[in-house]
Amino acid sequence: MIERWALVSGLRGNLKTYDLIQRDLKKTRGVTSLFVLGDLVGPERNCDALLDRLKNPHRGDLKPDCIYGWWEEQLLAERGFRGERKADALRLSQGEDAVNALLNTVNPSNLNWLASLQFGFIELDCALIHGSSSDVGDNLTSETSPLILLDRLTRLNVNRLFTARSTKQFHLELTGGGINSQVKDLNGKREQQQEVPKRSVIGIGAGLNYTLYDVGSDKTHFLTAGSKTNPKRNGFA
Amino acid sequence: MNHAIISCLHANLPAVEAVLNDIDRQGINTITCLGDLVGYGPQPNEVVELIRKRGIATCQGCWDEDIIDGLNACECSYPSQLAERRGHLAHQWTDDQLTDENKSFLASLPTSLRRDRLLFVHGSPNSQHEYLLPDMDAFAALERVETAGADILFCGHTHQPYVRELRDGSIRVRLQNADHDCDQGEELTLPMRKIVNAGSVGEPRHGSTNATYVIHNDATDEVEIKEVAYDVARTCQAIVEAGLPKVFAWRLSHGFEFAEQAEDASHVCER
Fold first, then answer.
1. Could you tell me the pTM of the whole model?
2. A-chain residues within 8 Å CB-CB of B140?
3. In angstroms, rounded to a whole number, what is the distance separating the alpha carbons of residues A42 and B102?
4. Which domains does chain B possess?
C-alpha cells in the first residue's frame, strides 16, 4: 500500500481541534500514519483530556505516534525530568506566570508518559522533529537561510525534514547549487567540489493547520481541519 | 601584521616552550591560544602557569572544560572504550595535580574570542567538543563560520593542522507555502569563508612528532602552517614517570592516534 502520512502539531491541549483533525482524516483516502510532532500541551487550557485521547485512541481514531515539542520540553524541565535544567527558555521569553500556567495544565500522572516521548522519528529518508536536529526549539521557516536548512538535513543524513516549531506550512526544496573548497595542509593542497543534494524542509503547520504527505510521490498537501475544501493547497512533487 | 595561533598544548611543556621560542624568534607579539592546556601530558601546572605568565589570550578547550565541570561536560568522542578509560585516568591524574589557582584560571576562560572578523574557538562555534575535520561536508563547514558571523574561523581540537577555503558557493531553492500557489525559485550566493585549524602543540596527530601552530597575516589573510621539532623523548619520559598510560608516550613518539582507533572502532559513547 502506498503510504500517506498525516502530520500534526501545536494542539496545545485543544481536544476539539484534534477531534476535527481525526474527523478529517476519516474522510481522507489512504492515510496510513498519524504523526503528532510535539506541542501536545500548552499554557492556555487543561491538557489532560487531549493527552488521555492520544494515549487511548477512540475506536476509529487513526492511532497517533507522538514526539515531544518545545512546550513539553519546558514542562518536563520545570518538573525535574531534564536534570538541572529548568524551563529557562519559557521563563525568559514569557515570564514566571507562563511557567506557572503551564505547570497547572497537566496532571502529574501524565508526566511519565510525556517524558517517554522521543525527540523525533526517522521514517524512510525523512526526519520528523518538532524543531530540528539542532534543538527542539529550532525555529525553521521558509525565511531561514538555506545554508542552515541544509546543515540541519546534513546532521541527520536525511532527504526530508518535517518541522513544526515555526507553526508555518511551507515546502522548501533545495534544487541545486554547489561549492568549491581547497584544503591546504602539510602534505600540500587539494581541491574539492560538492553539489547541493536534492533535499527538502517541510513546515507542517500547527493547530487546525496540518499536512498530508504522500510518500510514494513526495507530494505535500497543506490542509486546515474542518474546512470544506482545500482546492489549491497542494504542494509539489 | 602577523599573529600566531596555538592550540591543544596538552601539558607538554617542552613542546610549548619550543613553539613559543619559535614565535618569539619571528618577532610576533600577538599569540592566541585555542585551549586544551591540560590533559594527556605530564606538566599541567607548568603549562598553565606559562600561558598565564605570558598573558596569552586563551579560550577554553574541551579538556579545560571537563577538568572544571567534570566528565559529564564531555560529549564523548573517544574512538574506543579503551581510549575512554585511558582518558578517564588522565582526567583523574590531571584533576589531582592541578592547583586550585590554575583550575580557577581554566574556569575563567571564555569559550570563544573574537577580533573583528576573526573568530577563535577550540572545537567549533557550537561546542568545544565538535570536530571540524578538513574533509567534512563543505556546506556544514561554511555554516559554522557564517552562522558565527566570522570571515575566518580559527579552531583546533582535531590535532591536524589545515587551512580550508570555501568559495564559489550557491544554493538554489524552490518554495511553496500555504499562502502562495506559485513556486518561487531563487538562488542564494554564499560568501567565501575560511577555516584555519592550528593543529596541536602538545600532542600532534598529523603523522609527525613535530609540534604545529599557524601564523596568520591579517593584512593579506595568508596562513602559514608551522612545524617545530622539540625534545619528544623528554616528554615521553615524564609521561611514564608520572604513571600516566604509556600509550600516551607511544602516541607522542609516533604522531598518530591510529592504534587506539583500531581497538574498537565502532564505539560510540552515549554518556
1. 0.86
2. 150-151, 154-155
3. 46
4. 2-173+181-263 (3.60.21.10)
